[in-house]
Amino acid sequence: MDNYKKESLTLKGAVALGTGVMIGAGIFALLGQVAELSGTWFPYIFIIGAIISGFSAYSYIKVSNAYPSAGGIAMILMKAYGKTTITAAASVLMALSMIINESLVARTFGAYTLQLFDVGKNSLWVPALGVSLLILAYIINVSGNKIIGKTSQFMAFIKIVGIIVFAIGGLWVADFTLSDVMPSSDAVKNYSAASYIGAIALSILAYKGFTTITNSGGEITKPHKNVGRSIIISLLICTVVYFLVAISVNASLTITEIVKAKDYSLAEAARPAFGNYGLYFTVGIAIVATISGVIASIFAVSRMTAMLTDMELIPHNHFGMSGSIQKHMLLYVVVIAITLTIFFDLSRIASIGAIFYLIMDMIVHWGVFKHLRKEVNANGVLLIAALLLDLIVLIAFLWIKLSSDIFVVIIAAIGIILVFAGEKWFLHWKEN
Q: What is the CATH number of the domain that holds 372?
């Protein structure tokens, strides 16, 4: 896992990588939050999120197929904007959204693990367990444990099969019928259009793991074809899995019950369906998913930030430490993730991550449309459609947060301003 090897990742391996990153906190932590904003329509919100993610993936697929590279998103931005503040800031926003996702996964690990014990959901054990997971992930990554790389496909398989078994079993126990697929018409009256779009914004986070595949473009066999194929296949698999799980949870619990247990809604849905054994099974799958997800994510973001350092797009200080830049980045990434895990709950972590990701995503779409469209033979209409969809979702999501949790918007705004201002100063300093 430490070494970059050209054409060392098969199509199957790339799909396992994409689904392995996506099927983690995406379904375990976000399902309850999406249900809170959309009611009984939440299973279909995940489908809409997949469609929007499909439009977003178009930009990444076209550029990555033309220029497969381990640089991934940073490479796309560099080709579109050159060595500019926009390239550097957007790359940092992507890195931050990945670190935020690690905090989301870490707290999810804590929330699900505590379901095995008689401990309150607001217990300090949630962040404590999350911090412990991040420290463990750092130790494994810094030691260069090759077992992680070899077992990533196996872990992805276990997660997907386990979640599908949970979903189908839940539907079977709940005496599911086709009428259960259709949400209540009365439910629409209780939620605004902005609320539904806000739910879509969170659902998009459950799919953004496909960008991990673009960061491994140079390692995939026949990359000019397989990068795009692996992204599409990963999105399709995750869409089916998310929809099945959402329908199963919806059949087992009321919306009130889902919202009450939103940080561990899958575990709560397992109780009436399977009893304690189902609870143990679901928590076990959640633990496997979160542990493997955070280990893989920390490795990916440390490699991305090390590459940004080599490209002289971000500053770096050794602080007297020995070893490679990536080893240093591992420590910095984990420290930031631990800080977020301690001070922010799941809802706020997910919200900040969604804002950062959507802004970065729009910058990518505009860059490809403005500067690379003809070069990579991309359809301008699809690029603009992806940009507008992101913009609509972002505006609605900000509107919701301004009225319900303005602190999140303030923190996100401060973060974005600091990133752009800091990068502008750094690049100007480097130039002089």
A: 1.20.1740.10
Phi and psi, residue 4, nearest 5° = -90, 120
Are the CB atoms for 341 and 334 separated by under 8 Å? no
Secondary structure letter of residue 372 according to DSSP: I
> What's the sign of the alpha-carbon dihedral 37, 38, 43, 44?
negative
DSSP code per residue over 280-336: HHHHHHHHHHHHHHHHHHHHHHHHHHHHHHHTTSS----TT--S-HHHHHHHHHHHH
Cβ within 8 Å of residue 167, ≥6 positions away: 241, 244, 245, 247, 248
Per-residue pLDDT reduced to its tens digit, 291-318: 877 887 887 788 788 888 888 888 877 7
| Pairwise CA distance, residues 170 & 278, whole Å | 9
Q: Strand (E) positions, 155-210? A: none
How many domains would you assign to the chain? 1
Number of residues that this document lists for the chain = 432
* Spatial separation of the C-alpha atoms in residues 92 and 74, rounded to whole Å: 9
Site of tokens 């709560």: 268
- Print the domain residue range for 261: 11-431
Residue range 111-154, pLDDT digits in tens: 888 888 876 656 788 899 999 999 988 888 777 645 555 556 67
